[in-house]
## 1
Amino acid sequence: MRFRLAAILCALAVPAAAQSLQVHGFLTAREIYVKAQRSWTQGGFGRFDVGAQIPDDHRNVNVEIAQLGIDWTPTTWMLIHTDGIARREPSGTIGKRAGMLQGFVDLHSERWRFRAGAFWLPTSRENIDPLWTSPYTVTYSALNSWIGQEFRPLGADLQFSPNFYITLGATAFRGNDTTGTELSDRGWTFGNRLTVYNEGLPQAGEQGTTKPIAHDLDGKNGYSGRIRLQLPERAMIQFTRIDNRATLVPKVHGQTPWLTKFNVIGATLGTTGPTTLAAEWAYGGTELAFPGGRFKMDFDTAYVLLSQKRGADRWTARVDRFSTRDHAKSDPDFSRENGHAVTIAWLRDVREHVRAGLEYARVKGDRPTAPDPRTGGSTITAELRYGF
């Protein structure tokens, strides 16, 4: 109690000129034509956030999303941030309609930054706009669609930048013990749906849900480390290692931990120019224990994105590839999948705060465990977004 009172008094003692409060967000409406089987968000094996019923069927759906973020800077060396989301999705979608995405405190100087709370790791080369959105496409890559669904540290991050050219970072986190469940269950997907805290996600073809971003199950810290090299305003490359260090036991509080370790290598050319080339490659494995044994699955995915901004218009093309496979190389391998995707997007700044867009995405890939293994498909998305 004394500590809280002291903190409040310190904040009140700061001159008003040194404080700032900013509110920002997006209101987004999307009309989506989808040709694909039932979505993973409804317990199916479809690779998009929305779907029809069978692979050859199509459907028109609407999705509305509201995102809100608040930044409070009580002093020049402190930032307090929180953001959340509310959404209206097709009937039958499993999960929360609203919730918190991030909530953290930053303490920073010229070279150091300490962050504590719930936050995105700074790995993505496409989700670089406020509130972890993309300036390039409506549908995220397979890698960042998965991260948006299953991985968000709840912990502390320390970052050191001794000069303009190198940045080092280390993270200790909890609350991601089931990361890997969705990926092993139904494979890679493509979308922009972000999991909120303590949200239950459906498991394809099964009853029940998994909670990838929730309270810790085993009382152990996960760890991450990264190194970034950059030429300011020209290019950068970053290597990140992530290990959730989950305990391999069959069940904890009704949830199954998955020991997930993976690396992410990302690079960008033309960080501030009209033409941007970005790429990421992630590879690793996820493992679980069951009575009498263990199962481990290897995975990898990569994408290359090329974007051109001309006046109010931005054109972007992205190519993805993805795969999963049994680490033991069993035959038959029911976890094996290989696929690729192409995304083409046109985004236009209609007014200062209004963005319109049209996007085509096509995914090819089979999933052996699905009732119908043809889990690919296509979407055409029209979007209108108001930012403030």
## 2
Amino acid sequence: MQYTAIKTGRLADDVTNQIKEAIFEEKYLPGEKIPSEHELVDLFGVSRVIIREAIRNLEQAGLVEIKRGPKGGAFIQPLTHTAVSLVVKDLFRLAKGTVKEIMEVRLEIEPIVAGLAAERVTKEDLILLKKNLEVQPKIPGEKTVAGNINFHRLLAKCSHNPIYEMIINILLDFSIDLIINILPPGEILHDTTSHSDLYELIKNGEAKQARKKMRSHLQDVIPLMRAAETKRKSAL
């Protein structure tokens, strides 16, 4: 990868942006190691302090993982929604986001995703959806919440649209935190049939019905979540 020597300005940011561009252009693939600090110093013509700051920026963005030891260094991470989610979560907390606001957005996006899933689902996708339904815990608790949320994550993956998948995963990260925080022990905010019904509609390619079912499913959950949120706030 050909880098441009840095002369002025925010040096670490410039280094960070050039390495990011190399990652996005797949000059480095997941699991590969980027050049060492010493090599990057020579390539960019800046100090080791600047290079270390740039690598920290890449680590905080979730683009590289730092490994220590003789064979250590900065290794490219698979690109996921996680880094973006962490940033947006902080903004969400500052804005004092509520269940109502999260669910309003999910209500608009997830029916679209369910329809796309019905149109684009593969055999491999169906196997994962079916497995989720089969292993879903029946006893209320965090594992049950996580299992239900994971079904929605898998549906987003079935849309085969990485932008929708990223957005849905971020919304679901918010949702799982909210549900676990507001849900009283022994309670569950979910019926036992909606996910199975969605699975059948998607398997059969019924996009219109899948969209309709997803909307009604979320509409059923919203008042239960809001009631739990209100109950928790009144108890504080």
